[in-house]
Amino acid sequence: MDDLRAFEEEIQLGLSYRRGDFLIFGEIKGIADQAVYADDTGGSEEALERGEMWLLFNRVLDGNYSLQIGRQNFLDPRLWWWDADLDAVRFYYADGPWRLYAGVAENLGRVSTNEDFIDPEDQDLQRLLGYAGWRVSKQLHLAGFLLAQRDRSDAPAIGQLVEEGHQDDSDADLLWAGLRAAGVVDESPAGRLEYRADIAFVTGDETLTAFEEEAPGFSQVDQTQKRKVRGWATDVGVTWTLPLPGDPSVTLVYAYGSGDNNPDDHTDRAFRQTGLQDQDEEFRDYGVVLRPELSNLRIATLMLGLPLSTDARLTLGYHHFRQVDAASFLRNTGIDAEPTAESREIGKEISLVLQIQKWENLEMEMIAGSFKAGRAYGTGAGERANRLFFKMIYEF
Predict the structure, then answer these.
(1) Using one digit for the tens of pLDDT, what is the confidence trace for 258-292?
(2) 51-395 under CATH 2.40.160.100, yes or no
(3) In the 8-state DSSP scheme, what is residue 375?
(4) pTM over cut 0.85
């Protein structure tokens, strides 16, 4: 296990112009990251990134429709489905309790000055995203999500040499579909009780490519494998907000992502998320150190939200992680260590998030966590990985 202190600074410069129902917006981000590990190794990175850059036409057709073209943010309020800037064309519809949108997205160029090419995982990857929301009442808000992904890049042939950094170990045509229900159960002198529940399914086909190092700067395709993907997941939570100054709260969350109990049958039954979810930022239901993708996992979380002042809030979290089926890997986590498949007990984590927004344009956060490895890590059981992040965002 490793310890990490990270400092992230981000400056966003956005310019907009409005004329009637037409709006144009452009954004540039300056990012500076510094990471320091317990052994004093680490490094720093500075880059400019293209942020959102789009044209928006409001009130087209009969007035309930809008059209947005360019690099834009697709945002699920829970960040469970997506929170990503994508080069896209999107249509909106809004009327009374209904909110709908559908968009087609594909990366058209590199995003950062630190990149020399589009990430191979995103190269020629086309996405169709859809959302429909219906606010039935204060007690019930229903939503449906859809993401169809088509990977038009060709898997390399066995024996082919691929330049370092251009390896793409997965080419997949996948479909995600899911439903969400959320609302307020009760408001009384005892406080406010809110709930939300998500269920999602993924299906499709995938080609896996394995590489081995052949020569300096190149890898050779060793083998390929085709398989089906069939998985499902659910995430449910309740929040009790107490009738006290600053709205202190208690949140309970349980999440389940299916596993694959037969890796040799050419069907992967482990759920995987869309790849557009926000694991690093607000997705703290799953911790701040391990922060895994919801795949082959059961996650139980207890969080306490405590107001410190009118512009500062502290959130304390406890998280328990357990695999559905014992496996020797976790999909997309915040630590490098891999489980041994000898146990399903991944571990436990405590987390702390301090948010301060004293000034209108400046947001500051301190995020800390400590993960204790479970029996799934074999001889590493009981070891800890600690993280400390400082984040500052200034918008002007």
Answers:
(1) 999 998 899 999 999 999 997 665 457 899 999 99
(2) yes
(3) G
(4) yes
